[in-house]
Design a protein that fits this description.
This protein has helices at about 65-70, 160-165, 185-200; strands at about 10-20, 20-25, 40-45, 45-55, 55-65, 80-85, 105-115, 120-125, 135-140, 145-150, 155-160, 175-180. By secondary structure, the chain is mainly beta. It folds into two domains: about 10-85, Elongation Factor Tu (Ef-tu), domain 3 (Beta Barrel); about 105-195, Beta Barrel (Elongation Factor Tu (Ef-tu), domain 3), CATH 2.40.30. The strands form two sheets. It has a six-stranded antiparallel β-barrel with strand order 1-2-5-4-3-6. A six-stranded antiparallel beta barrel has the order 7-8-11-10-9-12. The model is unreliable at about 205-210 (pLDDT under 50).
């Protein structure tokens, strides 16, 4: 589990192509200080398992399914990526509960800078829009963000200088893909409510107070 608080910007140092996967090597001096084989590190919001460690670089196997469903397939040597180690029982939950399981990819469609912050609009798959609410949480490339406005096929977030300086959203351009993970609590609520709605024909019965 993660919190969506990016610890550092890492750099892709190696991509080894395999028949149905890649071995991805990422340099991250901070996240590798205490990493062990088998540990989880979120790379642009994708939970990956450390298979090797060499000094300040770790290597993880990325399956074809992950490459297809996320933006990791578009990474190249030298690409900067958001990194976060898995939380511990003593970690401050500065963001929200993030699983590192990408629900889909979106696309930056607008950047609107101002003096102290920047408004960014992200296009998202239609089947994910129902999980978003204003002031709710969403993870973009592993970054826990607060939704400002929910539009027909997109949403907006406001980025403070700290986010712009320490994450990939500081330099991504319009048209660039991003990994999206919606709030898992919203998905559980939907799952729990669905049987009740089906049983009542989509209507919730009111109690008779008489």
């Amino acid at each position: 589990m993660f919190t969506g608080i990016v610890e550092e910007l890492g750099v892709v140092e190696g991509i080894e192509e395999q028949p149905d996967a890649i071995r991805l090597s990422v340099r991250g001096p901070h996240v590798t200080t205490d990493v062990s084989l088998g540990d989880s590190i979120a790379v642009n919001g994708c939970c990956l398992t450390v298979a090797e460690r060499d000094g300040e670089t770790f290597t993880a196997d990325v399956m074809r399914e992950t490459l297809t469903k996320t933006s990791l397939g578009a990474l190249g040597i030298g690409t900067r990526v958001n990194l976060e180690r898995a939380v511990t029982p003593l970690t401050r939950l500065g963001g929200h509960i993030v699983q590192g399981h990408v629900d889909g990819t979106g696309k930056l469609v607008r950047r609107e800078p101002s003096e102290h912050w920047e408004l960014v609009e992200v296009e998202l798959p239609a089947d994910l829009a129902r999980y978003l609410v204003p002031k709710g949480s969403i993870t973009v490339d592993g970054i826990s963000l607060t939704v400002v406005e929910v539009l027909d096929d997109s949403f907006t977030v406001s980025l403070i200088p700290e986010t712009l300086a320490r994450t990939t959203l500081g330099f991504k351009e319009t048209g660039d893909p991003v990994n999206l993970e919606v709030d898992v609590i919203a998905k559980y609520v939907e799952r729990l409510v669905a049987p009740s709605e089906a049983a009542s024909g989509g209507h919730i019965e009111e109690k008779d107070e008489t």
